[in-house]
Amino acid sequence: MFIPKANRIAVFSYLFKEGVLVVKKDTVSPSHPHIEEATNLEVLNLMKSLESRGYVRVTFSWQHSYCYLTNEGIEYLRSYLGVPPHAVPATHKKKQGGRPEGRDREEEGDKFGGEGKPAFRGSGDREYRPRNGGGFGRGGGV
What we know:
single chain
């Protein structure tokens, strides 16, 4: 399939920037949801070509292809796009902080029910009630 060079560069630059690419198995879709320039069929065929050369690893699930860039693929896209050697995809970058954003250490006290009490040790309906021969189903009746 002939793919215009501008579309190929748009797909390859997105793949190199993110490190992963999701493609729905839909050949009639007019455009890819993340790449405006290329159609979904072009992205699907480019990923098939890169997979056959060993540059991406593809996992297919629920009519979607999840394409992961391999180390050989990173080197190929660096040479194809003219990217400097110190640039790496987002999936290969190390995170600076050790904790996810929005979480502080003060919140860890509320981990077990807010009051420090374990669940199902309170009063009322949450108490443990043994079943002495009651219930429905097999062997549960009178």
